[in-house]
Design brief:
about 375 residues; alpha+beta; Alpha-Beta Plaits; four-stranded antiparallel β-sheet; three-stranded antiparallel β-sheet; 13 strands; about 30% helix; cytoplasm; EC 3.5.1.14; Bact_exopeptidase_dim_dom; N-acyl-aliphatic-L-amino acid amidohydrolase; aminoacylase activity
């Protein structure tokens, strides 16, 4: 493992120090580090498991190679943004910058598990409302091209389990009312819809994955013996529904697929987001104008998109506040939750400069009449 040199940029050194904190739950190791109250629970973003032997370098070593690529869990998602925010604000403070708006930095837990004990609760607290937020910035994604993705909305995550009940029996017989037959019907309907959405995306170059509904089968269960037909079988799907779809009609469509499978078929939603709020990217909208102007001045090519997965921004928008998802990482393969996740040092440092300009612009927007 390489070590930090005295000539390394201090922002890079801080980033690598942060990356070396083992933030894997349920047993994180924060060492003897202490954090301010306002940053409490800031380490709770990494709530997933990974196979360490798939990494070229240890995932918490923050190894930097000769090309300046820094390898570690969190380089893209999203310890980079945390340090970039802090360093951009530090620079603004050092420069003696003053703005008509107050800049708040919040770090909340449990985004990886849905944000239900984090931002979803926080937006309803008086402490959040007392911040009187004008607009919020949240995470985005890396972009393998020259463009920078900026997300003004996101899909609605729906996690559904369908339970199919039928008659049990010996494995040598044709059981007429078999749970598996009903399960087959359900799976077929969901995957046929999946294939149609996939073809729609592939046939229209103007569409991104945020413009279609994704469907993935994630869990199957049923049966305990090789030669016994089970009386119940279940299947779980992860759907990310495009926000422009009529959600009530789509819900009815799913229920129709389940009913068509036969009797004794039930379903339950583990998550069913019905929030379709998006943030305006019209050039006349003051917040979008304040965001895009410094980007244009820096020569950044912005690509407005619907976020394909889920972030805490959905709770911000649902509460009635605008939010944009943006991580300043271009010419970078998307490797969040992947092994050998990395971010180039130059891309990281440039991101601090980009945030400096964007935050300055957003904080300089005059108060609206409704805010006075």
């Amino acid at each position: 493992v390489d070590t930090m040199s005295s000539s390394e940029n201090p922002s890079t050194s801080l980033f690598r120090e942060y990356l070396r904190i083992r933030t894997v739950h349920p047993d994180p190791d924060y060492g003897n580090r202490t954090w301010s109250l306002y940053m409490r629970n800031s380490m709770l973003q990494e709530c997933f498991f990974f196979l360490q032997d798939l990494w070229t370098h240890p995932p918490f070593a923050a190894h930097k190679d000769e090309a300046g690529n820094i390898y570690a869990r969190g380089t893209q998602d999203m310890k980079c943004v945390t340090i970039q925010y802090l360093e951009a604000l530090r620079q603004l403070k050092s420069d003696g910058s003053h703005f008509p708006r107050t800049i708040h930095l919040t770090l909340v837990p449990d985004e990886e598990t849905g944000g239900h004990t984090g931002m979803e609760l926080f937006v309803d607290y008086p402490e959040f409302k007392d911040l009187n937020p004008g607009i919020t910035l949240d995470e985005g994604l890396a972009s393998p091209t020259e463009e920078f993705s900026v997300f003004y909305g996101e899909k609605c995550p729906w996690w559904i389990t369908v339970h199919c009940r039928g008659d049990p029996g010996h494995g040598s017989l044709f059981i007429e009312n078999a749970a598996a037959t009903k399960l087959h019907s359900v799976i077929t309907k969901f995957l046929e819809f999946r294939e149609k959405e996939k073809k729609r995306l592939e046939s229209d170059p103007s569409l991104s994955i945020g413009d279609v509904t994704t469907v993935n089968l994630t869990k199957l269960s049923g049966g305990i013996l090789y030669n016994v037909v089970p009386s119940i079988m279940s299947v779980t799907f992860d759907l990310r529904v495009q926000p422009t779809l009529n959600l009530k009609e789509f819900e009815s469509r799913i229920e129709g697929w389940c009913r068509e499978a036969g009797s004794d078929v039930t379903w339950e939603y583990h998550q069913k987001c019905m929030n379709q709020n998006i943030t305006s990217i019209d050039e006349s909208y003051p917040w979008w104008k304040a965001f895009s102007k410094p980007c244009n001045e820096l020569g950044l090519k912005l690509k407005p998109e619907i976020f394909p997965a889920g972030t805490d921004s959905r709770y911000i928008r649902q509460a009635g506040y605008p939010a944009l998802g943006f991580s300043p990482m271009n010419h970078t393969p998307i490797l969040l939750h992947d092994h050998n996740e990395y971010l180039n040092e130059d891309v990281f440092l440039r991101g601090i400069h980009i945030y400096n300009k964007i935050i300055s612009s957003l904080a300089s927007v005059p108060a609206f009449d409704e805010e006075l």
